Amino acid sequence: MVKIIIFLSIIFNLFISYSQIDSTLLNRISKDTSTKTMNMDAIYNRPFLNIGKSPVAMGGYIEANWQYLVTDGVTEGHQLQARRMTLFVSSRINNRIKFLSEIEFEEGGKEIGIEFASLDLELHPLVNFRGGVIMNPIGGFNQNHDGPKWEFIDRPISATQLLPATWSNSGFGLFGKKSKNKWMFGYEIYISGSFDNTIIDNTENKTFLPAAKNNKERFEEINSGLPLITGKTALRHQKIGEIGISYMGGVYNKFQEDGLILDFKRRLDIFAVDFNSTIKKTKTNIIFECVWININIPSNYIQQYGNKQWGGFMDIVQPIIKLPILNWKSAVVNLSIRFEYVDWNNGTLIETGKNIAEDTWGFVPSISFRPSAQTVFRLNYRHQATRDFLGNSPGLMGGFQFGFSSYF
Questions:
Q1: Binning pLDDT at 50, 70 and 90, where does residue 110 land?
Q2: What pLDDT sits at residue 74?
Q3: Which of 236, 253, 400, 405 could tie 242 with a disulfide, CB 3.0–4.6 Å?
Q4: Taking the model in full, what pTM does it have?
């Protein structure tokens, strides 16, 4: 915590210094990578602020919203939320060496976390090194999660309640990409910190991967002593879109200590497919992600802890108005809808053979206004149904949300 406070003090002083520099020296750059980008480039494909010829660039984004939600007739009333503010600092240290950090402040500063802080060593377009605090490339959302890029206030349920959203760990590995004509190929492969026993020993009383985010020691030690392996390959066509296939897996339990065997090695394996495309004629944007999880659960655990989970989401975004408004030359109004589903326990009861429920499905219509690509104001309506383990009548939740998100 002391190190974070010192770092933030440096950032604050830099901002003060920037405010005293002639504005002609400040240059807004849209990204730190080549123009031909893929989803794997999302961490650098952001607006940064450069000072003249300085190698250091800065940026960030903010998210805030109002919401009024009702669950089975019960509501907490009107809620105003300052969900997060994120700071980026990047530096081109030398030829072929660059650094990027991403620090997020959540819930008005209640939580402060380093989501990304890695050094990139560019060796060849197809072989590059990355190490530090990395963001595991599972699915498409985990790396490409910035609020201003999305038409919806809430992050997808499958990305936050099935997978741990913005899942990052200490680690290192290789990445690269290659383009030819209208095709692009990219890959990433890393070893990193891993999950722990909290995924099956938590206050949710179910198999719940996001519980592992509470273990801050994962940046210093691995519970099982064996690293998590994450790999992704993606293929993109300029007209068709991009499809990615990713895997993340490893041993999560502490199976030995001081040479003494405590348990079997229990694995966690995750597979994900993501796809994004834009229909050129109508400018319709389609984003899809689906994930499957297999976990080796101890035999003495009750069936409430599922060994198979799956879920996903699909966003459809349709621009309906695009014209100059006030001084905004490229203002856009979008109509969008999200469909999402999560099954935390995919299986049947041993005693009866009946299907285990414990799932959630929902849809979210949205209308959003973008005065520019970097800022979005959005009005969402959320409808969601959740069933318990026994499949009783679902709890229904619905309500409105209004908020904004913007890079700065």
A1: confident
A2: 96
A3: 236
A4: 0.88
